[in-house]
Amino acid sequence: MKIEFTKTHGAGNDFIIIYNNQHHKVLSSPNFIQQICDRKIGVGADGLILLSDTDQYDYRMDYYNNDGTWETMCANGARCAALYMHQYQNKSNKLKFLAGDGEHNAEI
C-alpha cells in the first residue's frame, strides 16, 4: 500500500500527518505507528496525526504518540493539522474540527 504523508513541526515537536479516509485500521495500529515514527528505520517523529473527513466538522484529528498510544488531543499537533488542512485540502482559515476530547476551533 502506498501512503502519502507530510512531515511537519510545531513548537519543538515534529509530526507525520496522513490524510486518509480508508485505511485507519492499518494506519492506527501500534506496530505501524512505532515503525513510521522511529527515527532510525522510519520517517521519524514525535507523533502521528491521522486526518479524515467527518460530518459537521472540517475534519477529524486522531493523534498517536510515537509509541503507538492514542491521545485525545495534542495542541502542537492540532496547529500543524489546521495549517495542513488549510494549505493542502483547501479549507478556510477558520476551522472547526473534532478530536478525541471533543470539538475545537482553529484560525490561521
Describe, in plain words, how this protein is organized in 3D.
With 108 residues, the protein is of the alpha/beta class. The chain has helices at 24-27, 30-37, 75-88, and strands at residues 6-10, 13-19, 47-52, 59-65, 70-71, 94-99, 102-107. Strand 3 (47-52) and strand 4 (59-65) form a beta hairpin. The longest helix is centred in the last third of the chain and has 14 residues, at 75-88. It is globular. The N and C termini lie far apart (33 Å). The model has no long low-confidence stretch (mean pLDDT 95).
Layout of helices and strands, plus pairs?
Blueprint: E1 6-10, E2 13-19, H1 24-27, H2 30-37, E3 47-52, E4 59-65, E5 70-71, H3 75-88, E6 94-99, E7 102-107
Parallel strand pairs: 2-3, 4-6
Antiparallel strand pairs: 1-2, 3-4, 4-5, 6-7
Report how far the terminal alpha carbons are from each other.
33 Å
Q: Tell me how many strands there are.
A: 7
Principal-axes shape call:
globular
Task: Calculate Rg over CA atoms.
Answer: 13 Å
Low-confidence blocks of residues: none
Instruction: Describe the sheet with the most strands.
Output: 7 strands, mixed
Helix content: 10-25%
The helix count comes to 3
* SSE string, helices as H and strands as E: EEHHEEEHEE
